[in-house]
Amino acid sequence: MPGKEYYMATIYYHAKPIDVQEGISLGDLAIMLRADEDGDVMLARVNGSLTELFKSVRDGQTVEFLNAATLAGFETYRRSCSMLFMKAAKDVIGADRLHRTVLHFSMGAGFYYTLEGSFALTDELVSAIGARMRELVNANIRFMKKSVRTKEAREMFRNSGMEDKDRLFRFRLVSRTNIYALEDFQDYNYGYMVWKTGVLKLFSLHRYGDGVILQLPKRRDPMTLPPFETYDKHLQAQIEAERWAQQIHIQNIGELNERISEGGMSYPVLLCEAYHESRIAEIARQIAERTDVKFVMIAGPSSSGKTTFSQRLSVQLATYGLHPHYVGVDNYFVNREDTPLDEDGNKNYECLEAIDVKQFNEDMNDLLAGREIRVPSFNFIEGKREYKGDTLKLNEGDILVIEGIHCLNDRLSYALPAESKFRIYISALVQLNIDEHNRIPTSDGRLLRRMVRDNRTRGYSAKHTLSMWDSVRRGEEQYIYPYQESADAFFNSALPYELAILKSYAQPILYQIAEDDPEYDEAKRLLKFLDYVIGMPSESVPVNSILREFIGGGCFHL
Known about the structure:
By secondary structure, the chain is of the alpha/beta class. Helices cover 36% and strands 21% of the residues.
């Protein structure tokens, strides 16, 4: 028989033409070109578009390979490890005994899961699941992908007991759905997956609380597995948020869409806001009971709603006969010319050294001693601290509500007695997930909030906010997250319904980002995500809601 005829294609890699066999997979091409020298390849970018590695190349295409050091590659790694874990858990425990695996939220550098069924979750069982994951990695098994009719996919989900996925796709108008398979384990995954299990080398499993943590590398160091750390207060805050979402029957996007489509969201909105108010009132009670507290220190990552929370807390403190005064640590910035530089030579406004810590402590100690101080105000246009004649003196019943990213770091308030401080950590810990196997990152919720607020209050484009987000996240990881467990109280500012409100504000500005912009991939990802959610009007959002800090129309001076 005559040999098979092969056709050649010319592709462009690092701006150089390379002749390859037409139809070769991107995965095999990456091996041929030794593209993994700087780290295992997770994805490719073909003619500017993100593409999974099982796709074939065609003549004239420009190809780039992405490892876990890129944002898209990193998220692909984590997503694929999650499916690997679920497959291994099913293999070890058995489908007849493992009734349900739920990915709840991120915890530190990993994911937190619960496993439900007729078995006991022990250290030995978790170790066996980890060993099975290693076997699957060593076997270098292909992740298979197929496109099926959405109606067929929904039937498969129902038959597999995945009611959350069936509910999710009830509101999807797309005619087809992508299903991934790892041997006999099939699932829907929101986002790209790796080509083969062999690249999923870095992970560890730990039994924690009532579940399991899948420990993974951090975004800033994707080639290293960090040591396992516990976050007991964070875990409790997340579990409490999920219990609340379960109580009001809005645990995932499918349930949210059902409530919106049935016209029954007015009451859940009021319930969510009442829950926030009850938590704020409880924190105010804890503060009032500690009569030696004079400084309420509030910290949290960007777009957590710190300013609105501070004012709502102040109202609650007043009901206990206290007289709260707001202090923004940003008013103690050093003058712009004295701001330290980061490793790239840019001014670092996130570091503690950007604050005049000495002056802050002198002022707070003077207030504690009953002396009057001049209250500074930072002029962000001129880049200078100013004094406009405002003064402050603490009298009986007065208390300071201080807000700033370093407020949980004792180096900021080193001169103040420990008993005089009450620390609060606030973050928007999203309690809503896409479905039981696909989470909504907390950072995505905050990013959408910030994007909407930046556009409304500062005229910034979504492109501008996205371009700054990586730097913002880096500052949070360095200056906020390490201190969260030192808080006396946690407040979760996320609202189960907020994505339905933010959608109508975020979509138009995300569509402004052009295909050739560096931020396009992220914009496209967020738009795809928002497409899962049915929008709802903002009129039902109360004027004192934390959400009003971002969409406008609130009753507080921000």
